[in-house]
Amino acid sequence: MGVSIYIGKNSDKEKRYIDLKETEANHITFLGPSGSGKTTVMRAIAEEIFDKVPGALIIVIEQKYDKNKARELMNFLALITKRKGSDFVKENFQDLLTYYNILKNDGVLHGKPGDFAFGWPNWPFTTVPPFPNDRHSILSWHGLKPKSFPVKRIVFRPTRDISAIEKDNNCIAVNGKIRYKDVDFDFISRLAQINRNTIYGRVIKQAWDLEKKRDPDELERFGKEWEKKYRPNSNVPSQTLLSILEVCALLRSDTIFSKHKDFTSELSTDVINVIDFSANSELTPAEEAWIFKHLVMYIVSKFVRFRNTPVFFIIDEVQNLLQHSDGRKALDKLNREGRSNWVNIISGTQYMYGLPAFLVYGAAHIGIIGRIASADDEMLLRKVIRDFHRIRNPKVKSFTEYKNVKPWLKGRGWFSFDKMYTERMYFRPPQSL
Protein backbone atom coordinates (compact mmCIF):
# COMPACT_ATOMS: atom_id res chain seq x y z
CA MET A 1 0.00 0.00 0.00
CA GLY A 2 1.22 3.50 -0.77
CA VAL A 3 0.36 6.82 -2.32
CA SER A 4 1.93 9.19 -4.86
CA ILE A 5 2.22 12.86 -4.00
CA TYR A 6 2.95 15.70 -6.40
CA ILE A 7 6.15 17.62 -5.70
CA GLY A 8 6.55 19.83 -8.79
CA LYS A 9 7.60 20.03 -12.43
CA ASN A 10 10.97 19.28 -13.95
CA SER A 11 12.80 21.53 -16.42
CA ASP A 12 10.71 20.03 -19.24
CA LYS A 13 7.56 21.06 -17.34
CA GLU A 14 6.60 17.44 -16.70
CA LYS A 15 4.87 16.71 -13.41
CA ARG A 16 6.83 14.65 -10.92
CA TYR A 17 5.55 12.54 -8.04
CA ILE A 18 7.14 10.59 -5.21
CA ASP A 19 5.77 7.32 -3.89
CA LEU A 20 5.21 7.05 -0.15
CA LYS A 21 5.13 3.36 0.75
CA GLU A 22 3.75 1.89 3.94
CA THR A 23 6.54 -0.68 4.33
CA GLU A 24 9.41 1.79 3.88
CA ALA A 25 10.85 4.80 5.64
CA ASN A 26 10.03 7.72 3.38
CA HIS A 27 12.32 10.26 5.03
CA ILE A 28 12.93 13.40 2.98
CA THR A 29 15.61 15.96 3.81
CA PHE A 30 15.46 19.43 2.27
CA LEU A 31 18.56 21.61 2.15
CA GLY A 32 18.50 25.33 1.43
CA PRO A 33 19.90 28.63 2.68
CA SER A 34 17.72 31.12 4.54
CA GLY A 35 15.17 32.74 2.23
CA SER A 36 15.43 30.07 -0.48
CA GLY A 37 11.83 28.89 -0.04
CA LYS A 38 12.65 25.73 1.88
CA THR A 39 9.83 26.21 4.42
CA THR A 40 7.42 27.04 1.59
CA VAL A 41 8.19 23.76 -0.15
CA MET A 42 7.76 21.81 3.08
CA ARG A 43 4.38 23.47 3.65
CA ALA A 44 3.31 22.34 0.18
CA ILE A 45 4.41 18.77 0.93
CA ALA A 46 2.37 18.80 4.16
CA GLU A 47 -0.71 19.89 2.18
CA GLU A 48 -0.20 17.12 -0.38
CA ILE A 49 0.04 14.53 2.38
CA PHE A 50 -3.11 15.85 4.10
CA ASP A 51 -5.05 15.58 0.84
CA LYS A 52 -3.59 12.29 -0.41
CA VAL A 53 -3.11 10.22 2.78
CA PRO A 54 -6.48 10.06 4.59
CA GLY A 55 -6.22 9.39 8.31
CA ALA A 56 -2.56 10.40 8.54
CA LEU A 57 -1.27 12.12 11.65
CA ILE A 58 0.64 15.19 10.45
CA ILE A 59 2.76 17.07 12.98
CA VAL A 60 4.57 20.24 11.96
CA ILE A 61 7.35 21.70 14.12
CA GLU A 62 7.28 25.45 13.41
CA GLN A 63 10.20 27.69 14.34
CA LYS A 64 9.06 31.24 13.59
CA TYR A 65 6.33 33.55 12.40
CA ASP A 66 6.50 35.86 9.40
CA LYS A 67 5.11 39.41 9.62
CA ASN A 68 5.50 39.78 5.86
CA LYS A 69 2.63 37.34 5.29
CA ALA A 70 0.12 39.78 6.75
CA ARG A 71 1.47 42.48 4.42
CA GLU A 72 1.16 40.11 1.46
CA LEU A 73 -2.49 39.50 2.28
CA MET A 74 -3.16 43.23 2.60
CA ASN A 75 -1.37 43.91 -0.71
CA PHE A 76 -3.47 41.24 -2.40
CA LEU A 77 -6.65 42.75 -0.95
CA ALA A 78 -5.70 46.21 -2.26
CA LEU A 79 -4.89 44.78 -5.70
CA ILE A 80 -8.10 42.79 -6.04
CA THR A 81 -10.15 45.78 -4.85
CA LYS A 82 -8.54 47.91 -7.54
CA ARG A 83 -9.18 45.29 -10.22
CA LYS A 84 -12.62 44.01 -9.23
CA GLY A 85 -14.12 46.67 -7.00
CA SER A 86 -15.11 46.75 -3.33
CA ASP A 87 -18.42 44.92 -3.85
CA PHE A 88 -16.60 41.92 -5.34
CA VAL A 89 -14.20 41.90 -2.40
CA LYS A 90 -17.01 42.07 0.17
CA GLU A 91 -18.76 39.15 -1.53
CA ASN A 92 -15.73 36.89 -1.95
CA PHE A 93 -13.16 37.85 0.70
CA GLN A 94 -15.15 38.59 3.84
CA ASP A 95 -12.74 36.70 6.13
CA LEU A 96 -9.81 38.66 4.72
CA LEU A 97 -11.69 41.95 5.11
CA THR A 98 -12.37 41.12 8.76
CA TYR A 99 -8.68 40.38 9.29
CA TYR A 100 -7.75 43.64 7.55
CA ASN A 101 -9.94 45.60 9.98
CA ILE A 102 -8.33 43.80 12.92
CA LEU A 103 -4.86 44.76 11.70
CA LYS A 104 -5.96 48.33 11.06
CA ASN A 105 -7.17 48.66 14.65
CA ASP A 106 -4.36 46.73 16.32
CA GLY A 107 -1.26 46.02 14.27
CA VAL A 108 0.89 45.33 17.33
CA LEU A 109 -0.84 42.37 18.94
CA HIS A 110 -1.85 40.98 15.54
CA GLY A 111 -0.14 40.65 12.17
CA LYS A 112 2.18 37.68 12.87
CA PRO A 113 1.06 34.62 10.88
CA GLY A 114 3.22 31.54 11.30
CA ASP A 115 5.53 30.08 8.69
CA PHE A 116 2.92 27.33 8.39
CA ALA A 117 -0.26 29.43 8.20
CA PHE A 118 -2.34 26.62 6.67
CA GLY A 119 -5.58 28.36 7.64
CA TRP A 120 -5.22 31.13 5.03
CA PRO A 121 -5.58 30.40 1.28
CA ASN A 122 -2.50 31.50 -0.63
CA TRP A 123 -4.21 34.22 -2.64
CA PRO A 124 -0.99 36.17 -3.34
CA PHE A 125 0.27 33.23 -5.43
CA THR A 126 -2.66 33.78 -7.80
CA THR A 127 -1.02 37.04 -8.89
CA VAL A 128 2.65 36.00 -9.01
CA PRO A 129 3.88 34.54 -12.34
CA PRO A 130 6.35 31.63 -12.26
CA PHE A 131 8.47 33.23 -14.98
CA PRO A 132 8.96 36.82 -16.17
CA ASN A 133 6.13 37.99 -18.45
CA ASP A 134 4.23 34.74 -17.83
CA ARG A 135 0.43 35.02 -17.95
CA HIS A 136 0.01 32.19 -15.49
CA SER A 137 0.21 32.50 -11.72
CA ILE A 138 2.49 30.21 -9.75
CA LEU A 139 -0.51 28.20 -8.54
CA SER A 140 -2.27 27.89 -11.88
CA TRP A 141 0.98 26.86 -13.60
CA HIS A 142 0.96 23.81 -11.32
CA GLY A 143 -2.78 23.20 -11.76
CA LEU A 144 -3.62 24.32 -8.22
CA LYS A 145 -5.94 26.79 -6.55
CA PRO A 146 -5.74 28.70 -3.23
CA LYS A 147 -7.02 26.59 -0.37
CA SER A 148 -7.18 26.64 3.42
CA PHE A 149 -6.64 23.58 5.60
CA PRO A 150 -8.00 22.65 9.04
CA VAL A 151 -5.31 23.32 11.63
CA LYS A 152 -4.80 22.96 15.34
CA ARG A 153 -1.93 25.07 16.64
CA ILE A 154 -0.46 24.16 20.04
CA VAL A 155 1.23 27.07 21.83
CA PHE A 156 3.27 26.84 25.03
CA ARG A 157 3.30 29.68 27.58
CA PRO A 158 1.67 32.01 25.01
CA THR A 159 3.43 35.36 24.72
CA ARG A 160 0.27 36.97 23.35
CA ASP A 161 -3.43 36.31 23.51
CA ILE A 162 -4.48 32.95 22.07
CA SER A 163 -7.30 34.62 20.14
CA ALA A 164 -4.77 36.86 18.37
CA ILE A 165 -2.77 33.80 17.32
CA GLU A 166 -5.97 32.21 16.03
CA LYS A 167 -6.92 35.29 14.00
CA ASP A 168 -3.41 35.61 12.54
CA ASN A 169 -3.46 31.99 11.37
CA ASN A 170 -7.20 31.59 10.76
CA CYS A 171 -7.23 28.39 12.79
CA ILE A 172 -7.84 26.84 16.21
CA ALA A 173 -5.08 27.51 18.76
CA VAL A 174 -4.79 25.86 22.16
CA ASN A 175 -2.60 26.36 25.21
CA GLY A 176 -0.11 23.48 25.33
CA LYS A 177 0.14 21.79 28.72
CA ILE A 178 2.59 19.30 30.20
CA ARG A 179 1.60 17.03 33.08
CA TYR A 180 3.73 17.27 36.20
CA LYS A 181 4.08 13.50 36.28
CA ASP A 182 5.71 13.43 32.82
CA VAL A 183 8.61 15.79 33.56
CA ASP A 184 11.75 14.55 35.27
CA PHE A 185 14.04 16.28 37.73
CA ASP A 186 16.36 17.46 34.94
CA PHE A 187 13.50 19.48 33.43
CA ILE A 188 12.48 21.22 36.64
CA SER A 189 16.09 21.73 37.76
CA ARG A 190 16.74 23.74 34.60
CA LEU A 191 13.46 25.60 34.99
CA ALA A 192 14.00 26.50 38.66
CA GLN A 193 17.81 26.72 38.41
CA ILE A 194 18.20 24.15 41.19
CA ASN A 195 21.74 23.55 42.39
CA ARG A 196 22.06 19.75 42.50
CA ASN A 197 24.88 19.93 45.04
CA THR A 198 22.78 21.63 47.72
CA ILE A 199 20.72 19.80 50.33
CA TYR A 200 17.45 21.14 48.93
CA GLY A 201 18.47 20.02 45.43
CA ARG A 202 19.09 16.47 46.64
CA VAL A 203 15.83 16.44 48.59
CA ILE A 204 13.83 17.53 45.53
CA LYS A 205 15.57 14.95 43.33
CA GLN A 206 14.75 12.20 45.82
CA ALA A 207 11.11 13.25 46.02
CA TRP A 208 10.59 13.93 42.32
CA ASP A 209 12.54 11.16 40.60
CA LEU A 210 13.07 8.39 43.16
CA GLU A 211 9.74 8.51 44.99
CA LYS A 212 7.76 9.87 41.99
CA LYS A 213 6.09 12.64 43.98
CA ARG A 214 5.67 14.65 40.80
CA ASP A 215 3.29 17.32 41.93
CA PRO A 216 4.06 20.59 43.77
CA ASP A 217 1.56 19.72 46.52
CA GLU A 218 3.20 16.34 47.12
CA LEU A 219 6.65 17.90 46.92
CA GLU A 220 5.67 20.49 49.53
CA ARG A 221 4.41 17.76 51.89
CA PHE A 222 7.62 15.81 51.35
CA GLY A 223 9.68 18.89 52.19
CA LYS A 224 7.74 19.53 55.39
CA GLU A 225 8.07 15.87 56.44
CA TRP A 226 11.81 16.09 55.80
CA GLU A 227 11.92 19.22 57.98
CA LYS A 228 10.14 17.47 60.86
CA LYS A 229 12.39 14.44 60.60
CA TYR A 230 15.76 16.18 60.47
CA ARG A 231 14.98 19.43 62.37
CA PRO A 232 12.37 18.36 64.93
CA ASN A 233 13.16 21.03 67.51
CA SER A 234 13.34 24.03 65.18
CA ASN A 235 10.64 26.69 65.25
CA VAL A 236 12.05 28.54 62.24
CA PRO A 237 11.83 27.08 58.71
CA SER A 238 15.23 26.07 57.39
CA GLN A 239 16.67 27.53 54.19
CA THR A 240 16.30 24.06 52.68
CA LEU A 241 12.53 24.04 53.28
CA LEU A 242 12.15 27.63 52.09
CA SER A 243 13.98 26.76 48.86
CA ILE A 244 11.73 23.73 48.33
CA LEU A 245 8.63 25.86 48.88
CA GLU A 246 9.98 28.41 46.41
CA VAL A 247 10.32 25.69 43.76
CA CYS A 248 6.78 24.49 44.52
CA ALA A 249 5.42 28.02 44.05
CA LEU A 250 7.23 28.34 40.73
CA LEU A 251 5.81 25.03 39.49
CA ARG A 252 2.28 26.06 40.46
CA SER A 253 2.54 29.44 38.75
CA ASP A 254 4.05 28.19 35.48
CA THR A 255 1.23 28.03 32.93
CA ILE A 256 2.90 25.20 31.00
CA PHE A 257 2.08 22.66 33.70
CA SER A 258 -1.12 20.76 34.42
CA LYS A 259 -2.03 17.99 36.85
CA HIS A 260 -4.08 16.00 34.37
CA LYS A 261 -4.06 17.32 30.78
CA ASP A 262 -1.16 16.84 28.36
CA PHE A 263 -0.76 18.58 25.00
CA THR A 264 -0.53 15.20 23.24
CA SER A 265 -4.26 14.72 23.88
CA GLU A 266 -4.88 17.61 21.45
CA LEU A 267 -3.39 15.75 18.48
CA SER A 268 -5.82 14.72 15.76
CA THR A 269 -5.79 13.07 12.34
CA ASP A 270 -8.59 15.44 11.25
CA VAL A 271 -6.30 18.48 11.17
CA ILE A 272 -2.72 19.49 10.52
CA ASN A 273 -1.14 19.73 13.96
CA VAL A 274 1.31 22.63 14.35
CA ILE A 275 3.64 22.60 17.36
CA ASP A 276 4.36 26.31 17.74
CA PHE A 277 8.00 26.87 18.72
CA SER A 278 7.94 30.40 17.30
CA ALA A 279 8.06 33.57 19.41
CA ASN A 280 4.39 32.85 20.23
CA SER A 281 5.70 30.33 22.78
CA GLU A 282 7.99 31.29 25.63
CA LEU A 283 10.36 28.32 25.62
CA THR A 284 14.09 27.78 25.96
CA PRO A 285 15.79 25.67 23.26
CA ALA A 286 16.30 22.90 25.84
CA GLU A 287 12.57 22.92 26.66
CA GLU A 288 11.69 22.72 22.96
CA ALA A 289 13.95 19.66 22.62
CA TRP A 290 12.35 18.06 25.69
CA ILE A 291 8.81 18.71 24.39
CA PHE A 292 9.81 17.17 21.06
CA LYS A 293 11.22 14.10 22.84
CA HIS A 294 8.04 13.76 24.91
CA LEU A 295 5.97 14.05 21.74
CA VAL A 296 8.02 11.37 19.98
CA MET A 297 7.73 8.97 22.94
CA TYR A 298 3.95 9.44 22.88
CA ILE A 299 3.75 8.81 19.12
CA VAL A 300 5.93 5.71 19.33
CA SER A 301 3.98 4.21 22.25
CA LYS A 302 0.45 5.13 21.16
CA PHE A 303 0.56 5.17 17.37
CA VAL A 304 3.53 3.24 16.04
CA ARG A 305 3.19 0.15 18.22
CA PHE A 306 -0.57 -0.15 18.56
CA ARG A 307 -2.20 1.62 15.61
CA ASN A 308 -1.96 1.38 11.86
CA THR A 309 -1.71 5.15 11.46
CA PRO A 310 0.70 6.79 9.00
CA VAL A 311 2.65 9.49 10.84
CA PHE A 312 4.48 12.41 9.24
CA PHE A 313 6.79 14.69 11.20
CA ILE A 314 7.57 17.88 9.28
CA ILE A 315 10.44 19.57 11.09
CA ASP A 316 11.63 23.01 10.04
CA GLU A 317 15.22 23.98 10.91
CA VAL A 318 15.91 20.51 12.30
CA GLN A 319 19.45 21.51 13.28
CA ASN A 320 17.98 23.54 16.18
CA LEU A 321 16.59 20.41 17.85
CA LEU A 322 19.83 18.54 17.27
CA GLN A 323 21.77 20.96 19.44
CA HIS A 324 20.34 19.23 22.51
CA SER A 325 20.62 15.59 23.59
CA ASP A 326 16.83 15.24 24.02
CA GLY A 327 16.31 16.30 20.41
CA ARG A 328 19.03 13.97 19.08
CA LYS A 329 17.70 10.98 21.03
CA ALA A 330 14.13 11.64 19.93
CA LEU A 331 15.01 11.86 16.24
CA ASP A 332 17.10 8.71 16.47
CA LYS A 333 14.24 6.83 18.14
CA LEU A 334 11.76 8.15 15.60
CA ASN A 335 14.00 6.89 12.82
CA ARG A 336 14.53 3.42 14.33
CA GLU A 337 10.97 2.78 15.49
CA GLY A 338 9.36 4.14 12.37
CA ARG A 339 11.55 2.48 9.77
CA SER A 340 8.94 -0.14 8.85
CA ASN A 341 5.88 1.40 10.51
CA TRP A 342 5.03 4.21 8.08
CA VAL A 343 6.52 6.92 10.26
CA ASN A 344 8.19 9.57 8.16
CA ILE A 345 10.55 12.44 8.89
CA ILE A 346 10.44 15.37 6.48
CA SER A 347 13.05 17.84 7.65
CA GLY A 348 14.51 21.12 6.48
CA THR A 349 17.93 22.50 7.29
CA GLN A 350 20.28 25.24 6.18
CA TYR A 351 23.24 22.88 6.24
CA MET A 352 23.67 19.09 6.12
CA TYR A 353 27.23 18.72 7.29
CA GLY A 354 27.08 17.45 10.88
CA LEU A 355 23.52 16.10 10.69
CA PRO A 356 22.91 12.51 11.89
CA ALA A 357 23.65 9.93 9.22
CA PHE A 358 20.01 8.79 8.95
CA LEU A 359 18.93 12.29 7.85
CA VAL A 360 21.55 12.30 5.09
CA TYR A 361 22.48 8.74 4.12
CA GLY A 362 19.21 7.28 5.40
CA ALA A 363 16.92 9.78 3.66
CA ALA A 364 14.88 8.22 0.88
CA HIS A 365 14.96 11.50 -1.05
CA ILE A 366 16.96 14.71 -0.86
CA GLY A 367 15.72 18.09 -2.05
CA ILE A 368 17.98 21.08 -2.66
CA ILE A 369 16.16 24.41 -2.61
CA GLY A 370 17.80 27.39 -4.28
CA ARG A 371 21.44 26.35 -4.10
CA ILE A 372 24.02 24.53 -2.03
CA ALA A 373 25.37 27.21 0.27
CA SER A 374 28.26 25.31 1.87
CA ALA A 375 31.36 23.72 0.38
CA ASP A 376 31.18 21.07 3.12
CA ASP A 377 27.63 20.19 2.07
CA GLU A 378 28.71 19.97 -1.57
CA MET A 379 31.43 17.45 -0.68
CA LEU A 380 28.98 15.44 1.41
CA LEU A 381 26.29 15.37 -1.28
CA ARG A 382 28.84 14.21 -3.86
CA LYS A 383 29.20 11.06 -1.74
CA VAL A 384 25.47 10.61 -1.15
CA ILE A 385 23.82 11.40 -4.51
CA ARG A 386 24.96 9.08 -7.29
CA ASP A 387 24.33 11.49 -10.16
CA PHE A 388 25.46 14.63 -8.36
CA HIS A 389 27.00 15.85 -11.62
CA ARG A 390 23.48 16.84 -12.74
CA ILE A 391 23.33 19.53 -10.07
CA ARG A 392 24.59 22.91 -11.21
CA ASN A 393 25.10 25.55 -8.56
CA PRO A 394 24.61 29.03 -10.09
CA LYS A 395 27.80 30.95 -10.80
CA VAL A 396 27.59 34.71 -11.06
CA LYS A 397 30.28 37.08 -12.27
CA SER A 398 28.86 40.41 -11.19
CA PHE A 399 26.66 41.99 -8.57
CA THR A 400 23.99 42.62 -11.20
CA GLU A 401 23.92 38.92 -12.10
CA TYR A 402 23.65 38.06 -8.41
CA LYS A 403 20.65 40.39 -7.97
CA ASN A 404 18.94 38.82 -10.98
CA VAL A 405 19.66 35.20 -10.05
CA LYS A 406 18.70 35.25 -6.36
CA PRO A 407 14.90 35.73 -6.75
CA TRP A 408 14.88 33.25 -9.66
CA LEU A 409 16.20 30.51 -7.35
CA LYS A 410 13.43 30.78 -4.75
CA GLY A 411 11.25 27.67 -4.68
CA ARG A 412 13.38 26.00 -7.36
CA GLY A 413 16.24 23.59 -7.16
CA TRP A 414 16.92 19.88 -7.52
CA PHE A 415 15.28 16.73 -6.23
CA SER A 416 17.06 13.39 -5.92
CA PHE A 417 14.67 10.43 -6.09
CA ASP A 418 16.03 7.67 -3.82
CA LYS A 419 19.38 9.44 -4.28
CA MET A 420 19.62 7.62 -7.63
CA TYR A 421 18.07 10.03 -10.11
CA THR A 422 18.24 13.81 -9.79
CA GLU A 423 16.25 16.42 -11.70
CA ARG A 424 16.00 20.16 -11.83
CA MET A 425 12.69 20.95 -10.12
CA TYR A 426 10.17 23.76 -9.95
CA PHE A 427 8.68 22.71 -6.63
CA ARG A 428 4.96 22.55 -5.99
CA PRO A 429 3.78 25.80 -4.36
CA PRO A 430 1.60 25.74 -1.24
CA GLN A 431 -2.10 26.40 -1.58
CA SER A 432 -2.08 28.00 1.87
CA LEU A 433 -0.20 31.08 2.98
UniProtKB/TrEMBL annotation:
<dbReference type="InterPro" id="IPR003593">
    <property type="entry name" value="AAA+_ATPase"/>
</dbReference>
<dbReference type="InterPro" id="IPR027417">
    <property type="entry name" value="P-loop_NTPase"/>
</dbReference>
<protein>
    <submittedName>
        <fullName>ATPase</fullName>
    </submittedName>
</protein>
<feature type="domain" description="AAA+ ATPase">
    <location>
        <begin position="24"/>
        <end position="386"/>
    </location>
</feature>
<dbReference type="InterPro" id="IPR051162">
    <property type="entry name" value="T4SS_component"/>
</dbReference>
